Amino acid sequence: MIKNRTPLPASPVGAKRLALSAFSGLVLFLGLAALLATSAAAAVPGLVVRDNPDDRGEAILVEWDGEAAGDSVRVERAESEAGPWVMRRALPGSAARFVDQGEGGPERGKTYFYRVNGQVLSATPTAQWWNKGRTNLFLILALYLGLIMVFLNIARKGGSLFIRKIAGLDAMEEAIGRATEMGKPVLYVPGIDDANNIQTIYSMAILNSVAKMVAQYDTELIVPLAKAFVLPLAEETVRSGYMDVGRPDSFRADNIRFLSDEQFAFTAAVNGIMLREKPAANLFLGSFFAESLVLAETGFTTGAIQIAGTANIHQLPFFVVACDYTMIGEEFFATSAYLSREPMLVGTLKGGDMMKLVIMVFLVVAAIAATMGHSEAFRSLLVIR
């Protein structure tokens, strides 16, 4: 007969030993797993962390062997080796590089630590004096300045530099002569922009030549202005022109008139001058906008000879339609050199023209090379990093 036996209670010491053994095994397993994971993660072949070249010292370059790297690369950054670590980017291993820059990027002269899949390296961003990626831009600029200096030297020595005829400028003296014969004034409008606008500055140079012509013919010159700051500039420009030809007594400051800085109030005032005083020659040379058509149409109805010039290409069609002569684009900027023949202006103009010729030749050669399948060399010359 089998008797039931009551099981003996487990020993507390044995239970503790069993629990301790299980815990130790778990810790050992997790430790080995972590060690293996860390070893695997640290194996980023060819890892390099360095300052990004050719910049202002605001970027760090992280590179690795993209072919031998794993599926993904995790890039973290900290200001000390102990952390805290900030996630910067998770990339596929084939990316092979990462540039840490832009918003939240590194600061110049400060050392940063980068942890890439557990492997830690450091670098300090520094600024470079010479950006090798822009050497081509430097060479182009040097060529341009060299051409200008060559032609400046030729002009200063009295060499003959050809400037093609500009019909509007050749007609300017004819228009002023016609106004003299009719006993009517010449109207000169230097645009509606302020004194710091390049078109206004060039317009003042042309105004000086016009002032010399009207002073020689003893013809009245009216200069309406849309900006108060241009008033003293225009006054001195016209006065200088009169003085250069020995007629300072003929200068009339009242004819240099500031009308309004409101666009169409100024336009209405100039229209009133054209309709009341009937100038025989209207010269619109400067920066014009929507008022160009209104001014040109009003001048056309009065029967005046009209010569216009502006670099605002969106207004050129209106001047072409309503004016007798129109200087298009760069012809306007060449006017001051054409009229004055000053060596500094002529040399600069010829240097710019020669640089354009060099660019056109380069484009033709590059187009031929691209057609023949050899465009990479020319493309590398134009890339600016």
List the helices and strands and how they pair.
Elements: H1 12-42, E1 48-51, E2 60-63, E3 72-78, E4 86-92, E5 97-100, E6 112-116, E7 119-123, H2 135-156, H3 167-182, E8 186-191, H4 198-217, E9 221-225, H5 230-244, E10 256-258, H6 263-277, E11 281-287, H7 291-301, E12 305-310, H8 316-322, E13 325-328, H9 330-340, H10 343-371, H11 376-382
Parallel strand pairs: 8-9, 8-11, 9-10, 11-12, 12-13
Antiparallel strand pairs: 1-2, 2-5, 3-4, 3-6, 6-7
Helix pairs in contact: 2-10, 3-4, 4-5, 4-9, 6-7, 9-10
Number of helices: 11
Morphology call: elongated
- Strand order across the biggest sheet? 10-9-8-11-12-13
Largest sheet: 6 strands, parallel
DSSP E strands, number = 13
Task: Kindly report the average pLDDT value.
Answer: 86
Assign the structural class, choosing from mainly alpha, mainly beta, alpha/beta, alpha+beta, or little secondary structure.
alpha/beta
Amount of beta strand = 15-25%
Rg estimate, integer Å: 39 Å
Instruction: Please bin the fraction of helical residues.
Output: 40-55%
Low-confidence stretches: 35-42
Distance N terminus to C terminus?
98 Å
Elements, N to C (H/E): HEEEEEEEHHEHEHEHEHEHEHHH
How would you describe what is shown here?
This protein has a six-stranded parallel beta sheet with strand order 10-9-8-11-12-13, sandwiched between helices. A four-stranded antiparallel beta sheet has the order 4-3-6-7, with no helix packed on it. The protein has a three-stranded antiparallel beta sheet with strand order 1-2-5, with no helix packed on it. 48% of the residues lie in helices and 17% in strands. The protein is elongated. It has eleven helices and 13 strands. The protein has 385 residues and is an alpha/beta fold. The chain starts with 11 loop residues before the first helix and ends with a helix. Strand 12 (305-310), helix 8 (316-322) and strand 13 (325-328) form a beta-alpha-beta unit. It comes from Eiseniibacteriota bacterium. InterPro entries: DUF6754 (IPR046642). The chain crosses the membrane at residues 137-155, 357-375.
